[in-house]
Amino acid sequence: MLKRALWALLGLLLLVAAVLAVNTLRQGSRQLQVPPVQGVAVDEQAAAASLAAAIRARTVSSYTDASLNADQFQALHAHLQATYPKLHAVLTREVVGGLSLLYTWTGSDPSLKPIALMAHQDVVPIAPGTEADWQAEPFAGTIKEGYIWGRGSWDDKANLIGQLEAVEKLVAAGFRPKRTVYLVFGADEEVGGERGALQIAKLLQQRGVKLDYAIDEGLLITEGIMPGLKAPAALVGLAEKGSVSLRLLAKATPGHSSMPPPPGQSAIAKLARAVQKVDAAPMPAALVGVAGQMFDALAPEFEGMTRVALTNRWLFEPLLMRQLQQGQSTNAMLRTTTALTLASAGNKENVLPGRAEATVNFRLLPGDTKDTVVQHVKHAIDDPAIEITVLPGDFPSSRMASADSASYGLINRTVRELFPGTLVAPGLMLAATDSRHFEPFTDNVYRFSPIRAKPQDLARFHGTNERISLANLAELIRFYHRLLQQSAGG
To answer: Which of 357, 362, 388 is nearest to 373 (CA)?
Structure first.
């Protein structure tokens, strides 16, 4: 009897192994097969010099002061006008909201929907106390060791200069687009984009514009970031997360520290208990939506057991979920994230505070809302004495663009042509971009920058030693040049 059971178990295992092998081998590459294209010739030194000059404009934006560093933005504008004369002779230039720029390259066929290429002029400040950690002065625009160094070299002046360089070359070559092309350069993306990209979006809506697609900064060409995937992967953001911040407030009777209340009854203790409960109860995770599409596209490209697991998610999904939740970036693709960002209480060491409060920021997965987050937090805390308030500035997650659209296909083709061997897959943008303001008049908004990034580069984003290589800047120019050729016709 036991022997028959063992033989049956062995047979079952062999059957499962055979099914796994067949499924794995049957799922071949989903990558678009196109011949490589050399791309337009680029003067790397001249392009690097232009980006370096743009970096020297200290275009740090402000939530509260719309005129902060206005002279720096104007210096950047003057640089662009002087460096790209052919573009400025053909395209219409408008200043919107004080400092943001809208360029219009009118197409020859008004029946075709326009497209929009987006970038932003503003940058985040340098974290106080970190200036000496930079290998090059943050706003000097230093060119050395094959890189352009400085704040904005990656986020997002490389895209801005790349787009202008590409259009300048096309204009110089006599290219005339069939469909209208907009260049949208907001001046306050880092603080929400309401004075810049939002106002440009409203202006275009008033003019009755309907876009075929818009492409903005976003996901990157990752190299070595996904274990088991040797080839570079260009992740094209189909959607971006929303955001909501909640304030948790605990109250207690203030008094002298010599006569404290019973354990757990002070305002700080109540708040600490609530915060710990929220932190210990993350929103549910699921390998669905854009994350599912990404792994479907990349699964056949992985090696070894990773490929087997990804192509047989019906069996290995629990294991995959555990592994993916261990990485910060992969975990963030699977769920609405919970981040404890601010806490305050008290003003003197011998005084019991009457109030203690904390701010928790949630980045919303498409499908979740601020209401679902509030209900989740209330359930996790399970204490009606903790006041929960939605803070101003929340915004929903974006709609999801389609990976089956013609415009996604053009982005896919352009990457595969110019970056041979690079894989292309849909992705989810974890942060917010100006492109969310353009959703009312296009179904196709993509978040993608053809910037190469290795694991050690990710800390440079909004961090220290931000840089981009001269070779990669040239790749950006070729990408936008080729994308415009294919999208706008000629």
So the answer is: 362
Please tell me the pTM assigned to this model.
0.93
Residue 37 lies in a domain: no
Residue 422 sits in the same domain as residue 449: yes
Which residues sit opposite 363 in a β-bridge? 243, 337
Q: At what angle do helices 70-83 and 44-56 cross, to 10 degrees?
A: 160
Is residue 124, in this structure, part of any structural domain at all? yes
Task: Count up the domains in the chain and report the number.
Answer: 2
| Domain that includes residue 377, residue range | 242-390
Residues 148 and 196 both lie in one domain: yes
Tokens of residue 398, six digits: 């974006």
Whether 352 and 481 map to the same domain: the answer is no
pLDDT of residue 427: 97
Show which residues are catalytic. Answer: 122, 189
- Cα separation, 103 vs 95, in Å, equals 9
* Nearest-angstrom CA–CA distance, 266 and 263: 7
- Token pair belonging to 17: 């192994």
Q: What is the tens place of the pLDDT at every residue in 241-261? A: 999 999 999 999 999 999 999
CA 68: distance to chain centroid?
25
User: Does 13 fall in a domain?
Assistant: no
Q: Give the helix/strand (H/E) hosting 186.
A: strand 181-186
- Segment (H or E) for 448: strand 445-453
Q: Where are the alpha helices (DSSP H) in 212-364?
A: 267-279, 289-298, 304-310, 313-324, 328-334
Cis peptide bond upstream of 156, omega within 30: yes
In a domain, 220, yes or no: yes
